[in-house]
């Protein structure tokens, strides 16, 4: 029942505006919307791929930093032992 009411409202709005939308016009608009969605999906996928690469680089950098810190602390410990 609500669908019929909504259809009537849409029909009334179209006739008030004095223009009637054809199936072909709707199909063109639908095709355009689908192309926009496809482009957006491709961009999201590309950006997700880049984010994954950046996250992997960050993890590797953090691991390298931790390794360098440990090496430095070991060297400082060895230097202190040699002085003492």
Question: How would you characterize the overall build of this protein?
Answer:
There is one protein chain. By secondary structure, the chain is an all-alpha fold. The protein has two helices and no strands. The longest helix is centred in the middle third of the chain and has 61 residues, at 23-83.
Protein traits:
2 helices; single chain; about 0% strand; mainly alpha; about 80 residues
Topology:
Blueprint: H1 2-17, H2 23-83
Shape: rod-shaped
End-to-end Cα distance: 92 Å
Describe the largest sheet.
Answer: none
* Uncertain ranges: none
Helix content: over 70%
Structural class by SSE content: mainly alpha
Order of helices and strands: HH
Number of helices: 2
Mean pLDDT: 85
Number of DSSP E strands: 0
What would you report as the Rg, rounded to the nearest angstrom?
Answer: 32 Å
Q: Strand content of the residues, in percent?
A: under 5%
Summary, kept brief:
The chain has 84 residues and is an all-alpha fold. 92% of the residues lie in helices and 0% in strands. It is rod-shaped, with a radius of gyration of 32 Å.
